Structures are given as C-alpha cells and as structure tokens.
Amino acid sequence: MAMTRADKAAELQQLEQTFKQADTAILVDYKGLNGPQVTELRRQLRGAKAGYKVVKNTIARRALKGTPFEPLEKFFEGTTAVAYTKTDPVALAKTLTTFVKTAPTLTIKAAVVQGRAIKPAEVSDLAALPGKPELYARLLFVLQAPMVQIVSVLNAAPRDLMSVLVQAEKKRQAS
Asked: In the chain, what is the straight-line distance between the N-terminal and C-terminal CA atoms, in Å?
C-alpha cells in the first residue's frame, strides 16, 4: 500500500519527535527475520524500556537533520529499523546483542550512544558493561564501606574491654 503525502508528513513528524526524545539509537538490518521473531524482539526491547521502529530510509534521513543522530545518515540503506532509548543504553545494547545470538540474520549497522557515534563492534562492548542497577549497588558498597569500618572500630573498644573483664572474672574465680 502506497503512502500518501500526509502519511509521510505524519511519519516524518513522529520520527523527528522520537529522535529528539531519545539519547541512544542503534540501527539494525532486520532482513531475514520473520513475524514472530520481530514480535519477540519488540517485547524484549519494551522490557528494556526501549523502542523499535521500522523506518523508510528517505523519511529517516530527513528526520535526522538537526539531531545528535546525524552521523547515522549514511547507514540508512536497505532494510533498516531503529532501536532507541532515552534511559539506559546498556540495557538496549544487551537486549540487541542477546537477540542477535538467537537470530543471526539480525545485524547491527551503526549506533549513536549519548551523542557519540560508535561502530557495531563497540555495541557488543557496551553490552558487556554492567547495567545501572549493578553500578548503583557497587557505588553504594563503596560509599558504605568507610562507615562500616568506623562502626566496627568504635565497637572494638567496648568489646575488647568486656573480654578482658570476662577473662579477669574467670581468673579470679579459678583462684
């Protein structure tokens, strides 16, 4: 079914809005995926708080103008879809690289992560990084460690005093 000029304008406006709101976009070539695989990919991306959109290349190139995603313009050739997020780029990269293992026909073309263009191989490096929750847990552990040490040092003096008193009491009772 052919798109009318009004449909194309609406699609362009929607894509421009998507690109302005997102801070990370990964272009994929979805050629060879069947319907259930695409549905599963969309479901997994929703779980990672990301979106997935199959785009028309000419409309996507126009929507990129004036956004941080302009370096992606040359990659809009052939069957192209955009996976995007505004929250966690690591979760998006992990989801896509995990899905690529189950569906090798899906290939990553290029990406822009928080304003920086990266190569497809770097997307798998990004996926190897720990996610936000794990980084928050590590930070909390690092911040909490000095306080735990102070508490244990402050508790050591009364504890040691009590053990000296207990030992003195045992010695007195023994003699």
From this structure: 103
Contact (Cβ atoms closer than 8 angstroms) between residue 117 and residue 27? no
Is 41 in contact with 33 (CB distance < 8 Å)? yes
Cα separation, 110 vs 137, in Å, equals 31
**Chain centre to alpha carbon of residue 97:** 11
For residue 1, pLDDT over 60 is answered with: no
Mark residue 100 as left, alpha or beta (left: phi above 0; alpha: psi -120 to 50; beta: remaining). Answer: alpha
- Could you read off the pLDDT of 150-161 as tens digits, one per residue? 888 888 888 888
What single-letter amino acid sits at 21? Answer: Q
Strand partners, 122: none
pTM (global) more than 0.90: no
The β-bridge partners of 116 are 113
